[in-house]
Amino acid sequence: MDAKLLERLRESLLGPDRYATFVTISPTGSPRGRTMTLVEIDDDGNFWFSTLRSSRKIGDIQQNPQVSMSFRAPPGSVNVEGQASVTEDPATKKRMFSPAWNIFGYDGPEDPKWVLIKVAPRTAEFVDAKTRESETFYA
Predict the structure, then answer these.
(1) What's this model's pTM, rounded to 2 decimal places?
(2) DSSP letters along the chain, please?
(3) Which of 7, 25, 111, 132 is disulfide-compatible with 64, CB 3.0–4.6 A?
């Protein structure tokens, strides 16, 4: 990913409001969205999320890894499309784990109940709500 795009994504999305509408495709082909908290955007531009292994989104991703995410980023929004994968790598889980997640039933970074979702973006669209202008970038 281009360094300028990576910097712009991080500046826009890694503030205190890290919520995304994370959309997967259900087994019946319908879009299924839910609010998720962005954990990190790594140096390669991948987006990381944390979830329970038993959640429906994991089954959706395993069947169809194409996802979209929409973030509020004043004065507009950022919409990202990409390919998701489920990660259980112990070192990655340990590095990204937050004790605050224990309220969701996680029991530390070694807990087998939770996994990470990595999204490799294909496109990122920045939309300015005031001017109604948008810019689309391809990763």
Answers:
(1) 0.93
(2) --HHHHHHHHHHHSSS--EEEEEEE-TTS-EEEEEEE--EE-TT--EEEEEETTSHHHHHHHH--EEEEEEEETTEEEEEEEEEEEE--HHHHHHH--GGGGGGT--STT-TTEEEEEEEEEEEEEEETTT--EEEEE-
(3) 25
